[in-house]
Amino acid sequence: MSMTIYDISKKAGVSIATVSRVLNGSSNVSPATRKKVNDVIEQYDYTPNAYARGMGLGSLKTVGILCADCSDLFLAKAVYYLQQELQAQGYEALLCCTGYNLDVKKNYLNLILSKKVDGIVLVGSNFIADTEAENKYIMDASAQVPIMLLNAAFDYPNVYSILCDDQGTMTEVTNKFLDADCTDIIYLYNSLSYSGRKKMKGFKAALNNRGINADKRMFFFEGKSDDVNAVADFVQEIADKGVKFNGVVCAEDTMALGAMKYAMRNDIKVPEELEIIGYNDSILCECCTPEITSVDNRLETQTHQLVATLVGVLSGEEMPARTIFSGRIVERKTTSFVE
Amino acid sequence: MSMTIYDISKKAGVSIATVSRVLNGSSNVSPATRKKVNDVIEQYDYTPNAYARGMGLGSLKTVGILCADCSDLFLAKAVYYLQQELQAQGYEALLCCTGYNLDVKKNYLNLILSKKVDGIVLVGSNFIADTEAENKYIMDASAQVPIMLLNAAFDYPNVYSILCDDQGTMTEVTNKFLDADCTDIIYLYNSLSYSGRKKMKGFKAALNNRGINADKRMFFFEGKSDDVNAVADFVQEIADKGVKFNGVVCAEDTMALGAMKYAMRNDIKVPEELEIIGYNDSILCECCTPEITSVDNRLETQTHQLVATLVGVLSGEEMPARTIFSGRIVERKTTSFVE
DNA sequence: TTGTAGGCGTTATCAT
DNA sequence: ATGATAACGCCTACAA
Fold this sequence. Notes:
Two copies of one chain form a homodimer. By secondary structure, chain A is α/β, with parallel strands linked by helices. Helices cover about 45% and strands about 15% of the residues of chain A. Chain A has helices at about 5-10, 15-25, 30-45, 50-55, 75-90, 100-115, 135-140, 165-180, 195-210, 230-240, 255-265, 300-315; strands at about 60-65, 90-95, 120-125, 145-150, 160-165, 185-190, 220, 245-250, 275, 295, 320-325, 330. In chain A, the strands form three sheets. Chain A has a six-stranded parallel β-sheet, sandwiched between helices. Chain A has a four-stranded parallel β-sheet with strand order 7-6-8-9, sandwiched between helices. A two-stranded antiparallel ribbon of chain A has the order 10-12. In chain A, strand 1, helix 5 and strand 2 form a beta-alpha-beta unit. In chain A, helix 1 (about 5-10) packs across helix 3. The radius of gyration of chain A is 26 Å and the shape is elongated. The termini of chain A are far apart. Chains A and B meet through helix 4, helix 5, strand 2, helix 6 and helix 11 of A and helix 4, helix 5, strand 2, helix 6 and helix 11 of B. Chain B binds a DNA duplex through helix 2 and helix 4.
């Protein structure tokens, strides 16, 4: 059985209050007593019980991280950065992969809440839905602890959003294509999350602005996005249907990889005959030849800012409800436009 | 401020004991009272405080997951599967990315321990070192809770190892090359972890068995392994040094990708002039052309077995201290041998 | 500088 | 079936 503060106090011949003081680095302890107590603690390898501690304190410097699927390249990286940043600030992370079902998400949010975390981070924009009703569980939770949104936005008291301007960035990307006279563009996407919708809007806006009808140029892939070959098949189908294109704008790197694979299969030269751009700037972009141009949405910057904001909020500072960074095009070999 | 069991009991006009009974599904509550209490709980969206609960119970059905770097493709997937399995068994996961420094690992192990987790999973073989002294912190921890090792092995009471027979699999892989008369093989690796060493041994054994000296054919890459281009440079250097090779066996998929990149740069035909095999069967293998043959080390099976074993141990059953699966070659287009 | 005692929110063991 | 009440292990005024 593990030691308690009482055991230690007895062995050291002091009261539990003194042990507690030593434990918490209070200054009002004589060096001699401190050493005596520390020795006993050392000797018995004593660690205070976190539950008891959490009960008294009401905080255990823990934040809950909810993430739909942390095997997703982007989300995994986000979780990683978050955990690093939190650690650096003296917080621990309670991770929960919820999947994409709303009820499951709700349940886990409540579970996490019951652990009296100091704050909650929702990773990825799939936590924000279209309708108010679907977002209610977030508003409820915000009554208890600050809610941090990574790569999504939702305006509500005690909810803080840190995100990339996906819409603007996507418009910029699309304009690059158009400016380079690559006008037969198609758009490949596989998510209707908050940021997914923003990206679509960005693409649409750029096309509409030039009088091009975007609706017939946007294609939704339903399969599992990391099945690159399935994406390639999907692009093949589009081509087979008679859609002509010399440019592919993607909402995800995996989509771009599928497009690349389609090109390879058909001996289409990239970027001479087909220009391709991905999104997220993941490791995948460097894995094929030619390497894929992509958009860096500043994940590391976002996570850093998110944790900084959270820490600020927790220490009672006034913090911006919404922080937006703009994306950055990382030009590689699948596009021919120049910066 | 959040509600307590007292608040609920007051609103419902019963004692806290009754509320507690309702909460924990005790049978000794009249349907009427139960409904009354449940209504209040519902109405105020009350969730019991997990710490207070944990103090009474001594367990919170939480297991700690330690992982050096969960942005690593393989480790991320492992964490993902683990979390899913644990969730399915009613456990939650406390995640900690420790990095590769021993002292940091120790600290986090202790921190996690102080949270009174029911068990601890060490993900990846980098937690097991060569020397007894370096593994002491694991032995110490095993005195408190069961320690589960994923993809590593260490024999000690209350430590359970679930792993893939990396050594045997690597020997098998190497033999395939040799059998196909691809004898000028080099071995690329970037880790000296437990499984890293096993893989090396496997490669060495196969070569030595045919009277080939393996030592001059093994190359250690020091850089960050997901920098594919750096790996390609590394392979280039090897070739420039005059080492001839028509086969590359890799300890990691990223290494194989680097080799692929090297081949592309030099217009070396794969697999006609150079055969390549990776390890881990990650998504990366399908991202390039030709797609890379790799080894599936049964991660999902491993994680499943690990959680099953943990749950068994926690419920007092006798469980195997070591469970070994064998790897499986997933043949794609960078090798010409046939199964 | 040190010790005493009350409180944190549950669960569980008694009675009733 | 229900209600008091004592743990659980720690923190922190308040006293000494």
